[in-house]
Specification:
3 domains; alpha/beta; 6-stranded parallel beta sheet; Rossmann fold; 14 strands; 8-stranded parallel beta sheet; globular
């Protein structure tokens, strides 16, 4: 085949006449075989930085290649992956994903096509590398580029840590140490250094062997940041109604931390005749899908949601994002407000700061960080009392681990982490639980657990500092420098 030009691919495949910011520099470096860490605001065009090289490699291949080039994209969430793949297919691109959303027959069909040389890009979660059959399929291809999306998930210092991302050094070695591109919207300097360490690439530098940092800053001048100190649900309702009046013809998201307060506000707004929908993790999957589809199409412009809503929401014209309760970290807050105004037009980001909510978040930090002793006890029950756990389930186990408390979610947190580390297959259904491996040091060590709790508390304190800062945009710039 003739060599494909990145500029031609940009125009013919994506319909853009020119690159933005440092996209061209990242793409040129990637095609030359250099590693990069790209930090760019949500909606800034990070995906093109690996999609263009992926198509360039594939469309420039020789038909006689025994192992056609493949770009592997690691993505932490299957919903986000699904949205990205569907968007690319809508542009006529032949890309694939392998994840738990697919039926086994679909996964097998995709893997056969990959082994036969089809697809320029393959989207997977890092957990897929636990499957031997998947590794055998990859052996039939030359993985030319490894793109790590949402790269902050690599770092234990990040706000959305995924344990399987910590296997990236091993994964890169399995793949023959391909050119690696890590991308995220949020990464403090500590997270940046941890990403380099977890990837197993050299420190920042200009050489191809080193990793070059491309940092666009957090500048989104079209986002107008407002904070209102409030007390109680009445003042929150008034502030929400004020925002709705200002943007009565625009789409918006109102974020909550607690499902019960989300539902209580939903009832208040219904009584006031405000048309909206709700989205949170306790809803059935089909209902969540309908809410997301209605929001994306503009059929339902207002959604009250927990942080379960947003990843993969590539809607250009969201006019406001309102936080009705304090989020868990400044990183999470910044990522969520980044969903507003992707079309470049003025948008509003409103943060309702309530001292009572801060106390709730502090309590959550304690419950979401079980100590090492709690992890050991959960692990011992699953190993030594497996039959009883299988027979009597979650509540039986909870009663033996802790006193009842309405916010005590330590068991759910512990099971979720054991699932993330691959020790159990399902964190919600214990009817057939089987422990596969030893308790990881990061969960077994009291020093590590206390360090994690302290980090979460510091991230929460950073939100308070942001609220009190005289120049909040400058504070964000310095925090994420």
């Amino acid at each position: 085949m003739h060599a494909a030009s990145p500029q031609k691919i940009l125009q013919s495949r994506f319909g853009f006449s020119s690159f933005r910011g440092f996209q061209q520099q990242v793409i040129d470096r990637t095609l030359a075989g250099g590693h990069s860490l790209v930090i760019m605001p949500t909606g800034g065009g990070k995906s093109l930085c690996y999609q263009i090289p992926a198509l360039t490699h594939y469309e420039s291949r020789n038909e006689s290649d025994a192992r056609p080039p493949l770009t592997l994209v690691l993505s932490p969430l299957v919903a986000l992956m699904k949205d990205q793949v569907e968007a690319l297919r809508a542009r006529g691109l032949d890309v694939a994903m392998i994840n738990s959303l697919l039926r086994r027959e679909e996964r097998l069909s995709s893997m056969r096509a990959i082994a036969q040389g089809r697809y320029a890009m393959l989207y997977v979660t890092p957990e897929r590398f636990r499957k031997q059959e998947f590794l055998e399929v990859l052996a039939a291809r030359q993985v030319k580029l490894l793109a790590v999306d949402e790269a902050h998930c690599i770092s234990e210092w990040g706000h959305d840590f995924r344990p399987d991302y910590s296997r990236l050094v091993e994964i890169r070695k399995m793949l023959g140490c391909p050119t690696t591109l890590a991308l995220t919207a949020t990464a403090t300097s500590a997270v940046q250094q941890d990403i380099l360490r977890q990837l197993g690439v050299s420190s920042f530098g200009e050489s191809l062997d080193a990793c070059q940092l491309f940092h666009a800053g957090i500048g989104r001048p079209n986002l107008h940041l407002h904070i209102h100190e409030v007390w109680g649900v009445e003042e929150k309702t008034d502030q929400i109604l004020d925002v709705l009046k200002r943007w009565n013809h625009g789409s918006g998201i109102v974020y909550f931390t607690l499902i019960r307060s989300l539902e209580a506000m939903s009832q208040r707004l219904q009584n006031l005749g405000v048309v909206h929908d709700v989205y949170h993790g306790d809803l059935p999957r089909q209902r969540r899908h309908r809410v997301q589809e209605a929001f994306m199409s503009g059929e339902m412009p207002l959604v009250l949601a927990t942080n379960a809503f947003g990843m993969g929401i590539d809607k250009k014209d969201i006019r406001f994002v309102l936080h009705a309760e304090i989020p868990g970290s400044l990183e999470a807050y910044y990522q969520e407000i980044g969903r507003a105004g992707r079309d470049g037009f003025d948008s509003e980001c409103v943060f309702l700061y309530c001292q009572e909510d801060l106390l709730t978040q502090m309590e959550f930090a304690r419950w979401s960080n079980p100590d090492a002793d709690f992890y050991h006890r959960v692990y011992d029950f699953l190993v030594h009392d497996r039959d009883q756990v299988r027979a009597y389930g979650m509540e039986w186990l909870r009663q033996r681990l802790s006193h009842k408390h309405k916010h005590d979610r330590r068991l759910e947190t512990a099971l979720s982490m054991l699932h993330r580390y691959g020790l159990i297959e399902d964190a919600l259904d214990l009817s057939n639980v089987q422990v596969n491996g030893e308790l990881p040091e990061s969960l077994a060590s009291e020093e590590a657990r206390q360090s994690k709790l302290l980090r979460d508390q510091r991230q929460l304190y950073a939100l308070v500092e942001y609220v009190k800062a005289p120049d909040r945009r400058e504070f964000l710039e310095e925090y994420f420098a």
